[in-house]
Amino acid sequence: MSAKIVKREELAKDIFCYEVETPLIANKAKAGQFVILRIHQKGERIPLTIADFDREKGTITMVFQVLGKTTLLLSRLRENDHILNILGPQGNPSEIKDFGHVAVVGGGVGVAAIHPILKALKEKNNKITSIIGYRSKELVFWEDKIKAQSYEVLVYTNDGSYGKAGLVTDGLKDVISREKIDRVIAVGPLVMMDAVTKVTKEYNIPTIVSLNSLMVCGMGMCGACRVTINGKIKFTCMDGPEFNAFAVDFDELKKRLNSYKEEEKICYKKELEKC
Ligand code: NAD
Prior knowledge:
Helices cover 31% and strands 32% of the residues. By secondary structure, the protein is an alpha/beta fold. Helix 3 links the parallel strand 8 (101-107) and strand 9 (127-134). Helix 2 (69-75) runs parallel beside helix 9 (261-273) and helix 5 packs parallel to helix 6. The model has no long low-confidence stretch (mean pLDDT 95). The structure holds nicotinamide-adenine-dinucleotide.
């Protein structure tokens, strides 16, 4: 299925927000799910988290950062252009119920991915403290959208150029020290999710992370998104993307994520040089 881009916005440098028309996906989408897209006949398939959806308009919203060749090509599309193929919603929806007080942690581009989770948690009357972190002020986006769904929002930048200076884990430690937290959900870079897990393990707070493993087919066949959970092999696309953080082998996943870094850099550079 192809999908028309109805709204295109650059949220921050190299971070784009696309709203695309795809009524069948919009109709079924739930918090925590993702789509797989391809932008030309020979293009690679990339997973992107559904950051919002509107069933009435028949649209879904995706936020991505230009990191490699495909995201660079994607960022060159304009409003009314079509994304060649879009498949979804993929993955299991987030587990949503009244947990009590939930701390939801979003790092960088991962802030977009926590947005539908916050909406769904709010609908179930959870008290939500959101902790969002960016490298610096220029990269801050969607603070308003996160505020609209949360009881409290703590904003951190690594360099202190906006909000408080520090990492999201500083905010998490602060919240845990003053309030009883029943559940933590974290989405962002793997090192961040690993660091969050180290904090919550100390307090034994149930923690969920959304894993961003390499993915190709997105349908459980190719094995590219393999992760080790409690010593057992799982596929992020079919068994995830969310997992109990305490069961994740983060060190193995970090190594797997770096497998094609060099090739990715070369492809990206070649594409840049074409312009
Ligand atoms: P980034 O490197 O700019 O980090 C964002 C924030 O995360 C930092 O400001 C900091 O507060 C926190 N952080 C980073 N490293 C940390 C550490 N070691 N300890 C504690 N906190 C730390 O992030 P980015 O470049 O925007 O990358 C976003 C990541 O989110 C990408 O890796 C992307 O794959 C991932 N992502 C995942 C999903 C998903 O569903 N799993 C969805 C969207 C994005």
